[in-house]
Amino acid sequence: MLWFPFFALLTKFFGYEENDTKLSEAILETWQNETLDLCLDPIKNFAGNSAVSYRIHTNFEWINFEVRNVQPLLIRFVGFVPPHIVQRFQKVHDNLELEDTKVSGGADGNFISKSRQAKGQWFSKDDKNLLEIYQKFDNVFKMDSKTTENFMMLSYDRFGHYAPHYDFLNFSIDSDNWWYKTYGDRLATALFIIKTAEKGGGTVFPKLKVVISPEPGDMILWFNANIKFEQEDLSFHGACPILAGRKIAMSLWIRCRQHKDLKCQMNDEILSHELNDIIRNFD
């Protein structure tokens, strides 16, 4: 991997300083140059990708979204979270003492990767601040919120990032993990945006050549598994480095099994989920 171009860019344009050495090295060690290039110019990249916009009415409200990829589905829902909830979670964030989130690896799990530089906090499903989001989720989607893990707030400061990875966990079939045994692997990821950074911080999908730069209140939804509950190879994604400011997001991982209304058309040629499989009242 060639590190110099991105290092030089940090130095020249974004005020690299000596005390940023550790964080910038973590980026350079865990990101490919071509993926960083996507992150640094999302507008140019957007021009090279088609996006189809929809506006549908479901359960007494209008839902606006753009489809950035069809197989597998990658969707940006515009203004999914109402402004008063966005502001509420901005205040919640400011009053929390978030902890560093670590990505471990190695045979014994003791190796700590530099791939994620962020702070985080899990929220109980009983948290009253989340009730309106869960209700809207169930109103809009055929996926059932009872199959989701708890919400996790993630806060990325300057040079914070999460290098490209899969959310699909790929546990062995005999795993004793409760979530896996009860609801299966991670079917999809919903990422709710609470605050955007001044520079950087988009969500990149390197294999799709897509970067999404949402606004506060937007939700990004993508599928980590196909209709056979196998990993979607194109779901490889990352949180682009923050070059100025702070990004705050809420992640919600949706598991594969026990969705009452989620029906999929079995097709040997198309194994990805389709819009009418997942969204209520979509014709």
Q: Cα distance, first to last residue?
A: 46 Å
Q: How is the largest sheet built, in terms of strand order?
A: 1-2-3-15-11-18-9-8-4
The beta-strand count equals 18
Binned, the helix content reads: 10-25%
Please compute the radius of gyration using only Cα atoms.
19 Å
CATH class category label: Mainly Beta
**Topology pattern, helix = H, strand = E:** HHHHEEEHEEEEEHEEHEEEEEEEEH
Low-confidence stretches: none
- Quickly count the domains: 1
CATH homologous superfamily classification: q2cbj1_9rhob like domain
For the largest beta-sheet, the strand count, sense and barrel status come to: 9 strands, antiparallel
Shape: globular
Helix tally?
8
Question: Averaging pLDDT over every residue, what do you get?
Answer: 87
InterPro entries: Oxoglu/Fe-dep_dioxygenase_dom, P4HA-like, Pro_4_hyd_alph, Pro_4_hyd_alph_FE2OG_OXY
Signal peptide: 1-15
GO cellular component, one term: endoplasmic reticulum
GO molecular function: iron ion binding; L-ascorbic acid binding; procollagen-proline 4-dioxygenase activity
Short description:
With 283 residues, the chain is α+β, with helices and mostly antiparallel strands.
Explain this structure to me?
- GO terms for molecular function: iron ion binding; L-ascorbic acid binding; procollagen-proline 4-dioxygenase activity.
- This is Fe2OG dioxygenase domain-containing protein.
- Keywords: Dioxygenase, Iron, Metal-binding, Oxidoreductase, Signal, Vitamin C.
- It holds the Pfam family 2OG-FeII_Oxy_3.
- The strands form four sheets. A nine-stranded antiparallel β-sheet has the order 1-2-3-15-11-18-9-8-4. Strands 7-10-16-13-14 form a five-stranded antiparallel β-sheet. It has a two-stranded antiparallel sheet with strand order 5-6.
- It has a single domain (4-278), classed as Jelly Rolls (Sandwich).
- The chain contains eight helices and 18 strands.
- It is globular.
- The chain has helices spanning 4-13, 21-30, 33-40, 42-47, 83-94, 131-140, 178-183, 275-278; strands spanning 52-58, 61-69, 74-78, 99-100, 103-105, 111-113, 116-117, 119-122, 152-156, 161-165, 186-195, 199-200, 203-205, 210-212, 219-223, 237-239, 242-244, 247-255.
- It is an alpha+beta fold and 283 residues long.
